Amino acid sequence: MAQGCLKCLKYTMCAANFLCFICGVAVLSLGVYMIINFNLTSLTPSLASLNIPKLLLICGIVITCVSFLGFLGALKENRCLLLTFFLVLFLLMLVELSAACLLLMYERQISDMITKDLNKGMKAVKASSENSTGLGDWDTVQKTFECCGINNSSDWGDLVPKSCCQKECDIPKPPYKPGCLTKLNEWFEENFLTTGIIVIVICIVEVLGMCFAMTLFCHISRSGLGYKI
After folding, report:
1. Rounded-to-integer distance, Cα 89 and Cα 144, Å
2. Which of 72, 68, 64 is nearest to 32 (CA)?
3. How far apart are CA 17 and CA 209, in angstroms?
């Protein structure tokens, strides 16, 4: 009976980590694709190293490595790998909870910092004589969210980009009225519940992974197969 439960737990953990590995590869691929096509560094120059494509790339690498570690530890019934898997998951959960607390505590300061960085990025694009790359980043955001500038179209001065309008900007077809900062804030507020649910689901998966890893670790220790490779 005990051996049957051990095998069931082992293969369940292998299947779960394999699915996580596939998800990690998908996130990694999306990050690489966005870095190649949508590397939005001119929007927030000070936060260029923390933009969404690079964060997706880092998350994809972490997910694939951790899930592979758990899969291999369960498949080989190796206590060292299982314990490492448990500790890595525990540290990741601590980092996630700490980041969530910091975001809630310093929400206003973070918003002000992003606004200042957006203004800095726009000034750099307007001052540059060869602004095709930077303007392409702004075009992507303005077309996606149907917005113009940071607060409104006046941020661009006399040279309003074509992405501020559905077609050509003229008197009958003026630029989009809302600024991109307002649209982005509305988008985050609309998706706040979804983001919270995703974070909770991730935490539950991590807790289950730690429980499975520790249970399998204890069963292997009792059976005397501690360092089987």
Report:
1. 36
2. 64
3. 9
CA 149 to chain centre: 25
The percentage of residues in the chain with a pLDDT greater than 70, rounded to a whole number, is: 80
pTM for this entry:
0.75
**C-alpha–C-alpha distance, residues 34 and 7, integer Å:** 41
| Residue 193: strand, helix, or coil | helix
DSSP 89-103: HHHHHHHHHHHHHHH
What is the tally of helices (H) and strands (E) in the chain? 7, 0
What's the longest Cα–Cα distance across the chain? 81
| pLDDT at residue 64, as a whole number | 94
Classify 204 as helix, strand or coil: helix
Number of neighbouring beta carbons within 10 Å of residue 17 = 25
The overall average pLDDT reported for the chain is 79
Give the pLDDT band (50/70/90) at residue 199.
confident
Query: In this structure, are residues 213 and 13 in contact, taking their beta carbons and an 8 Å threshold?
Result: yes
Is residue 212 within 8 A of residue 9, CB to CB? The reply is yes
